[in-house]
């Protein structure tokens, strides 16, 4: 068979066409990889920029591992967290209702306690829904915006509680140390101003910390061994360089201020209370003063102990595995215990609850 006849075969025509199409492409690839080093360098730079952009991209999600490394513990924690959350909702709602409905509780102490109940309810609500979802199965993925929103809400309410506990300590010190002038010192206008300052201080600290964190590039992989987007855990994802040390120092200074300044106010207030109690002559007066301040001091120790451990240690020393259990305590357990702490030994609150329940029962009997 001659060469001209061979070209008319269908198989040969297809093979020839393929060779004509593929050969130029092979030549181009060879030139790119071997013959043009400058172009190769440009391509590599583009790949590096693309990789860096992927590391710093705001579209990436955060993977919250939660307690997925403790699968046998997850069902127990789910029941415990749900129970604490229900207790928080019911206990704090009851406190607010009693403080509003009962005229005998229209006093500064219960006014601030009402605000504390609202803060605790919001604080635990900003954490528990995502935590319960995490405890039902595998790790939870959150968009960057959702993670920052959760951080902003929990920081605002947690910071507000720091300031509010200091305000309540001042109120207790005024009641014990200046009982005759207490009514004039704790005027409604001053109480409203102090409560507003607590909320405003929390929002200001949260806005500043969240803005500083949002401006920092966070490197992949965005795996957080925690159940919430908590500041120390997120700071461990921050990329190095670019003046980041200065930003971290500013954020640490803000945390020191929002924790240590209220702590100093609380210590000074209870120092005055201790001196006043020491100078009391009757045992009944001492018992009443200790009962008035004891419940608040218990709440302060529970909240500040875990918060100071979490936020006032260097970021590189923060242990996420241990930190998530401590965070579980002050975000879920403490808000559930606060209503019990403030009411178990408080005769006025228990009496108001009995009168309210008696009024409801009497109204139903009359119908």
Automatic annotation (TrEMBL):
Residues annotated as domain G-protein coupled receptors family 1 profile: 91-342
GO cellular component terms, A-Z: plasma membrane
GO MF entries: G protein-coupled receptor activity; olfactory receptor activity
Protein name (Swiss-Prot/TrEMBL): Olfactory receptor 2I1
Keyword Disulfide bond attached: no
PROSITE patterns assigned: G_PROTEIN_RECEP_F1_2
UniProt KW Isomerase keyword: no
Cell location: Cell membrane
InterPro entries, per database record: GPCR_Rhodpsn, GPCR_Rhodpsn_7TM, Olfact_rcpt
Signal peptide: none
Keywords, in A-Z order: Cell membrane, G-protein coupled receptor, Membrane, Olfaction, Receptor, Sensory transduction, Transducer, Transmembrane, Transmembrane helix
Annotated transmembrane regions: 76-98, 110-128, 148-170, 182-202, 256-278, 290-312, 324-344
Membrane topology: Multi-pass membrane protein
Pfam family name, one: 7tm_4
Role noted for this protein: Putative odorant or sperm cell receptor.
């Amino acid at each position: 068979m001659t060469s001209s006849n061979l070209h008319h075969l269908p198989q040969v025509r297809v093979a020839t066409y393929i060779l004509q199409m593929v050969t130029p492409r092979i030549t181009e690839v060879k030139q790119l990889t071997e013959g043009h080093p400058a172009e190769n360098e440009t391509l590599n730079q583009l790949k590096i920029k693309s990789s860096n952009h992927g590391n710093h991209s705001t579209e990436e999600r955060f993977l919250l591992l939660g307690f997925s490394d403790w699968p046998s513990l997850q069902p127990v924690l789910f029941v415990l967290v749900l129970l604490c959350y229900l207790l928080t909702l019911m206990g704090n709602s009851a406190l607010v209702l009693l403080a509003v409905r009962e005229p005998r509780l229209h006093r500064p102490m219960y006014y601030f306690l009402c605000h504390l109940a609202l803060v605790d309810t919001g604080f635990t609500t900003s954490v528990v829904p995502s935590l319960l979802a995490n405890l039902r199965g595998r790790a939870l993925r959150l968009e960057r915006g959702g993670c920052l929103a959760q951080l902003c809400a929990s920081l605002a309410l947690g910071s507000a509680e720091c300031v509010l506990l200091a305000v309540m300590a001042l109120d207790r010190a005024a009641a014990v140390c200046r009982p005759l002038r207490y009514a004039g010192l704790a005027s409604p206008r001053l109480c409203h101003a102090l409560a507003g300052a607590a909320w405003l201080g929390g929002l200001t600290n949260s806005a500043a910390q969240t803005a500083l964190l949002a401006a920092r590039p966070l490197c992949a992989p965005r795996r957080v061994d925690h159940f919430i987007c908590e500041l120390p855990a997120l700071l461990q994802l921050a990329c190095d360089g670019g003046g980041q040390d200065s930003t971290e120092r500013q954020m640490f200074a803000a945390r020191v201020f929002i924790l240590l300044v209220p702590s100093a106010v609380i210590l000074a207030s209870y120092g005055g209370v201790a001196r006043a109690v020491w100078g009391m002559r009757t045992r009944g007066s001492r018992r009443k003063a200790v009962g008035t301040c004891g419940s608040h001091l218990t709440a302060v120790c529970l909240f500040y102990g875990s918060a100071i451990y979490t936020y006032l240690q260097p970021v590189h020393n923060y242990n996420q595995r241990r930190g998530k259990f401590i965070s579980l305590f002050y975000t879920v357990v403490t808000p559930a215990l606060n209503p019990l702490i403030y009411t178990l030994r408080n005769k006025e609150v228990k009496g108001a609850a009995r009168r309210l329940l008696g009024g409801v029962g009497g109204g139903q009997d009359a119908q």
